Amino acid sequence: MKTRNIVLMLMLCFVMVFAAACGSAGSTNNEVNQGGAAEPTPQENTNGEAAVEEPLSGELVVYSARNEKFVDALLQKFQDETGITVKALHAGDAVVNKIIEEGNNTQADVLISNDVGSMEHLRLQGLLQGSEPEGIESIDPLYRAEDNSWFGLSARSRVLIYNKDLITEEELPQTIWELTDEKWKDQFMITRGGNGSMVAHVSALRNEWGDEKTTEWLTKVKDNAGAITDGHGDIRKAVGAGEYKFGLVNNYYYHQQLNEPSDNNVGALYPDQGEDEMGVFVNAAGVALIKGAPNESNAQHFLEWILLPENQKEFSFASKEVPLNPEIQTTEEAKRISDYKTMSMPLNKLGEVWLDTKELIEKAGLDLEIK
Amino acid sequence: MNNKQSLQKQHTSKVRKPWFRTFFHYCSVKWNKLWNGHPPDYVLLTIASITALVMSVPIIYVIWRSLFAGSERWLKLLDTRIPGLLWNTLSLTFVVTALAVTMGVALAWFVNRCDLPGGKTWQWLLALPLVIPPYVGAMTYIIILGPRGWLWDVWGSQPWLQSIFENYPINIYSFWGLVFVLTMFTYPYVFLIASASLRKMNRNFEDAARSQGYSMQSIFWKISLPFLRPAIGAGAILIALYVLSDFGAISMLRYMTFTSAIYYQMGSFDSVAATVLSMVLILITIVVLWIEASTRKRTVHQTSNSYKPPELIKLGRWKTLVMGIVLAVFVLSVVLPVIVLVYWSSIGISMGAINSKFWQYTWNSILVCGLASLFSMLLALPLIYLKSRYRSVFTRMIDRLAYSGYALPGIIVALGIIFIFNNYIQLLYGSFILIAIAYIVRFLPQAMQSGEASLNLISPRIDEAARSLGHSSLKILFKITLPLIMPGVLAGGALVFVSSMKELPATLLLRPPGFDTLSVRIWVEAGEAVYHLAAPAALLVILVATLPLRWMLNK
Amino acid sequence: MSYLQMHDITKQFHDGSKPAVMKFELEMNKGEIVSFLGPSGCGKTTTLRMIAGFERPSSGKITIENELICDNHFSLPPEKRGIGMVFQDYALFPHLSVIKNVMFGLHKWGGKEKKMRAEEVLEIVGLLDFADRYPHELSGGQQQRVALARAMAPNPRLILLDEPFSNLDVKLRERMRFELKQILYRAKMTAILVTHDQKDAFAVSDRVVVMNAGEIQQIAEPRSLYRCPKNCFVAEFLGKTNLLTGKLDADLKHVFTGIGKICLPVHTTQQEDQVMLSIRPEGCRIKSDGKFNGSVEGITYCGEYQEVLVRLNTQENNDQLMVIHAQVEENLQVGDTVYFDITPELVALVEAV
């Protein structure tokens, strides 16, 4: 008798949950369908202004590899201003894999990424499509793809975050090469070689130093580093807490640590700023248009929208990065991009050398090194 | 019309009768031989086969992808990466499994067979770590034992400690740190299964052994432990496969195993290397399963006609020691993590971490996990029934396939599902049902293990009796077997629910845009080391998962 | 035509292994009760399970009422055979009450008839008052009767009982043998019973199939089985016996053995000279003027009789031990010399195996 009751209850639960599941699944599908149906006939790409006039509806599917806090407000603003429902998937670098896997049946319209290398990688795989959005000229051609299928918006400089209680700016290594010096053994942190920012950085170093010297740098740094982590979050935390004196991060991690309620006595050093030195490496975060985007006209609209100066500003400000467009003002804490010396490698070359760089990192053994 | 056709068919078959007949006969003989003369019910077989097929999606994906890896790539990985990863992975898996099994069995023994103060309350208190995701555990132990953790603060204020040890001696980012964390949060798998078996253990066996002059101690080694062997095996598999597939805790504590390597390779979009590594991981899983199966003796069916509950052992002077151990485990695996989470949650809540969205995440979690747990109970049934009652190469294959998703990293499972569903079955794509499917693929073996343990206690004669009374095996499954193994099946469902609540990588990739669950929130916040926002979600995961666990243990 | 026919049944569990059952042949009439008797591992349970459909014969053919049950190409699933089975451990469904257990096989019956039939069979086995109890609340004998009622309820064409008495104590066992026979007769059931205890087989069945190592040794009624065992395995398996070798006399009615000339109950048609004799202990009657004598080696008191181990001198000068029965009032001591006669009715010629 008892078991029968349990079985009955279970059945009931099952039916309920299933009904709920089907219901919402159906509604999701419906929304998509409606979006498809209501989608205005594709406009000529160049006909941007006309598109703005038209009442907009439907949805926009955004895959974002960026921290969702940097993106959410911006997307909300877009939704409010245009009436297009934004559906965002925040899943870190995994979204890039998802885009690759979905290649045959594209789901996403737009990718927001932290790393130019991965966007160029997608483009070389034929998963992005070129466009000519209005306002694209405001971005230096160094920071966008040949066909403008992706473009950068904000700069992420590779800086040394350090704990002011343990070391002063003068004592710190002033160049990236100095990290190979024995005297820093076990005193600093880096991310592993497979980290997107690191791959891009190493590509730039190869461009500057050649493969041999870069390999030497990789091997020595691997042995010298006190800890090698997967991401930068761990580095800023550990340096802030004084576990290590300094670490190599993207500049906005420094700003994040500054905003922590404790462990925030940190500083940032922009390396290689001397007379003959190569300058700091700058990666970029930006957006890309996916090939075969289901809501293509909305996506086009988004690209143009985000290129509006105020939105460019918001894009960088949210993460305390530096706008790539020099005409846009910078947050107070961050240096302007023109205030420091940057490495000369054009970012849109990152994709081509990407595989070679990875192989170099693998050879040095840093790709899967964690300690 | 139909008749005519069949007539024609008959006619044509008559012409070729010898060939057709012999072929058909050959097939049917082979088929019968495969099943030892007893082919199972076709409905069950079909359901089980389809389940196995879905379960093997990640494997198919991995094999398909790794075919594209040239031999050069294989050789390079074999040369440079695989030996080190193999050592890392196997040593970690072995040590954690051994320790967790020891701990789980010992605790189960203390709780169920000794006069421990507090008695059966410990049964569920000690099972609680099951609901704490190991990455949350790792997070809390980094906060407590980390290089600048709470203990370090205490250290700094106690000069005499420094005078003894000089430097702070604990390094949580080490092999043993990781072993500690993983053991603490995986031992309940063995603890629960061993407890269930201990409670079912018939006192007669022990009485018999005592009458032969064995001491309680040697009875434990000679009678109870062998009796617990299937339970230990089942628990050890769950733990070993968990360690093989864990990413969260392992990456937080900066260790490298196959799974984390696969994640990192995927992170740099090297899916070829990732799938090659996955192939090796699958091989390891097969070996683990094979070791368990080959060391297990034949399943014994205990008849319950003369069941007597076993006698409680008086601990006497050992009481303090045993109590100390039990308390220590509880404090380390439950109390401390919860304190840390409460501490950070209170900071988070005061900063407004809980809003209406937060409850939406909670509902989403419950919805997907509930769906997954219901379906895994239903799908596990045919699988375990066939495995237990119709032993053959075929059922063994289905069984093994069902395990394949369990050992594979969630990201591979997710990509496999995207690969299949986005290309071929687009109806479900973009719906959260896909997440539930991923959970089933990953955790069905948990439901199977639990159901199987109960099923093996039921004599096959019961089924035969029902069949001789004129019921088909499908009907018997629902009218006789299911009611009898219901507690086990429900426990399995609860286990799947708890595991799903903790699952991250597949959820992350498969959720439709805008659909967040609690574990996703933990990841988002903890990934940026924003503990005060991660903690409320983690605490809620623990609370929600505690309910089914509590219920399951009350049975 | 007989009711159940089993023809040339062989069962081999694994290729190349020794068959568990070899060339089994049996025909049964409706209403007949047959026992399969043999030591454990002789293939009797396997045979039973093949009839029930839980095992499939490697070759051979079974029919009931001329309906094909299984042959080399076909096997009717157990649930379609209409054969009831009582298991050794009864296999009652622990989550169902007694009446529900009994009604379980009546799923094709209408609601009211179902209840009535269940009550009817429970009445037959005398457990109507226990209808709402659960199996674990019943004693062993009651459980067994429930199992029987459950098997009988759907009016099966055949009832199979697998070691039905093995879980019962001696007293209960005796009573249940009697009751089982009564119940089966009253219900006019055709039944097969598997047992390793000849008392079960003799008490319940009309005919007994003695099996050893997968092969049928003899099929006969209990009485003739005991008195005229076909071979020495059957003779030894069914109670105590003394086996003696000897030479057949020309008159075909006497045998010359080591201990002397022994008379057979009837003239034999045996062709060979060298024969083996089985002499039951109870066929040896102690008599002061008995023809045979020997010294007492040991005495076992069995309640209603005494079993006496006697050493006899033979002509070839090697001793022959024999077991004979003595009345309880006979006051015998070890070392005594006893005289006894052998009654021809309990002497049989057997084949040496």
TrEMBL record, chain A:
Task: Give positions of region: Disordered.
Answer: 29-49
Stretch forming the signal peptide: 1-19
- Extract one GO cellular component term from the record: outer membrane-bounded periplasmic space
Keywords of the record: Ion transport, Iron, Iron transport, Metal-binding, Signal, Transport
Q: Report the InterPro entries cross-referenced here.
A: Ferric-bd, SBP, SBP_1_CS
Q: Which GO terms describe its molecular function?
A: metal ion binding
| TM helices/strands, residue ranges | none
Give one Pfam family, short name only: SBP_bac_8
Q: Does the keyword Iron apply?
A: yes
One of the GO biological process terms: transmembrane transport
The entry marks the following residues as binding Fe cation, namely 252-253
This protein is called Iron(III) ABC transporter iron (III)-binding protein
The organism named in the record is Paenibacillus abyssi
UniProtKB/TrEMBL annotation, chain B:
- Coiled-coil stretches noted in the UniProt entry, renumbered to this chain: none
Give the ABC transmembrane type-1 domain ranges: 86-292, 362-551
Location in or out of the cell: Cell inner membrane; Cell membrane
* An annotated GO cellular component: plasma membrane
Q: Which residues cross the membrane?
A: 42-64, 84-112, 124-144, 175-198, 219-244, 272-291, 321-345, 365-386, 398-421, 427-444, 476-498, 529-549
One biological process term from GO is: transmembrane transport
Q: What is its main location?
A: membrane
A Pfam short name? BPD_transp_1
Q: Could you tell me the membrane topology recorded for this protein?
A: Multi-pass membrane protein
The record's listing under InterPro entries reads: MetI-like, MetI-like_sf
Q: Which UniProt keyword terms apply here? A: Cell inner membrane, Cell membrane, Membrane, Transmembrane, Transmembrane helix, Transport
Q: What family does this belong to?
A: Belongs to the binding-protein-dependent transport system permease family.
Q: What is this protein called?
A: Iron(III) ABC transporter permease
UniProtKB/TrEMBL annotation, chain C:
Q: What is its EC number?
A: 7.6.2.9
Any idea where the ABC transporter domain is?
A: 4-238
The chemistry this enzyme catalyses reads: a quaternary ammonium(out) + ATP + H2O = a quaternary ammonium(in) + ADP + phosphate + H(+)
SMART domains, A to Z: AAA
Q: Name one GO molecular function term.
A: ABC-type quaternary ammonium compound transporting activity
Q: Which Gene3D superfamilies match?
A: 2.40.50.100, Nucleic acid-binding proteins, P-loop containing nucleotide triphosphate hydrolases
Q: Which Pfam families match?
A: ABC_tran, TOBE_2
Q: Does the keyword Nucleotide-binding apply?
A: yes
Instruction: List the CDD domains.
Output: ABC_Carb_Solutes_like (cd03259)
Query: What InterPro entries has UniProt attached to this entry?
Result: AAA+_ATPase, ABC_SmlMolc_Importer, ABC_transporter-like_ATP-bd, ABC_transporter-like_CS, ABC_transpr_FbpC, Mo/tungstate-bd_C_term_dom, NA-bd_OB-fold, P-loop_NTPase
Q: Which top EC class is named for this enzyme in its record? A: translocase
Q: Which UniProt keywords apply?
A: ATP-binding, Cell inner membrane, Cell membrane, Ion transport, Iron, Iron transport, Membrane, Nucleotide-binding, Translocase, Transport
Which superkingdom does the taxonomy of this entry point to? Bacteria
An example GO CC term for this entry is: ATP-binding cassette (ABC) transporter complex
Q: Which PANTHER family match?
A: SPERMIDINE/PUTRESCINE IMPORT ATP-BINDING PROTEIN POTA, THIAMINE IMPORT ATP-BINDING PROTEIN THIQ
**Could you describe the subunit structure of this protein?**
The complex is composed of two ATP-binding proteins (OpuCA), two transmembrane proteins (OpuCB and OpuCD) and a solute-binding protein (OpuCC).
Q: What is this protein called?
A: Carnitine transport ATP-binding protein OpuCA
Task: Give the species.
Answer: Paenibacillus abyssi
Classification from the root reads: Bacteria, Bacillati, Bacillota, Bacilli, Bacillales
